[in-house]
Amino acid sequence: MDGTRRKKLEFGLVPRARMRRKVSVPKWLRPYGDEIQSIRGTIVVRGSPPEADIAYLEKRRSPRYSFIASAELIEEKADVRIASRVSELSLHGCYLDMMNPFPTGTMVMVKIAAGDAFFEAKSKIIYSQPNMGAGVGFLEVGPDSQAALERWLDGAEKDQQKQAG
C-alpha cells in the first residue's frame, strides 16, 4: 500500500458524498502535516511514521517501581484507619491496593512497613478507584522516612533491571 496506513473512524451520519472529499483534520491528528483523505469511511494517512500515531507523555516526576509492602492509611480528622498493601512506589507517592479507598483530595498519614524499615508521610489521595485502590502523593516526609524510601527504591530499581535482562 506504499506506506499508506488506514485508520477507521466513526463518522456517524455523515453523507457518503461528503466522506469522499478531502477531510479537514485537526493538526494533532497529523503531526507532520501528512496528506489525509477519507475513502469509503476510512481515513488514509500518507507519509507519517508509525510511531507518530501514538504520543504518550509521562506526567510523573519520578519513575515508579513495583513494590510490595504492608501499609496503613490514617485519616486524622475522623481517626479512620484502613489497612492496605503497597503495589507501586516512587519518590513522590505510591499506589495502595484496597477495596474502599478514601475520596480524592483526602489528607492522610501513610505508614509503610517492609522488612525492618518503616516509612511515614503526610499525604494526599490524588486519585481513587473504588474496589481497586488509590494513588497517594507524599507531601511531608521526615529524614528517616526519606532514607528508608530511597533504600527501597534503589532495591526496586535493581530488581527491575534484573528482570529486564
Structure, described:
This protein has 165 residues and is an alpha+beta fold. It has two domains: 4-52, no CATH class; 65-164, predicted glycosyltransferase like domains (Thrombin, subunit H, Beta Barrel). Helix content is 16%, strand content 43%. The protein is built from two helices and nine strands, in the order βαββββββββα. The protein has helices spanning 16-19, 143-164, and strands at residues 4-8, 35-39, 42-46, 65-75, 80-89, 93-97, 107-114, 117-129, 133-141. The strands form two sheets. It has a six-stranded antiparallel beta barrel with strand order 4-5-6-9-8-7. A three-stranded antiparallel β-sheet has the order 1-3-2, with no helix packed on it. The two termini are 37 Å apart. The model is unreliable at 1-21 and 52-56 (pLDDT under 50).
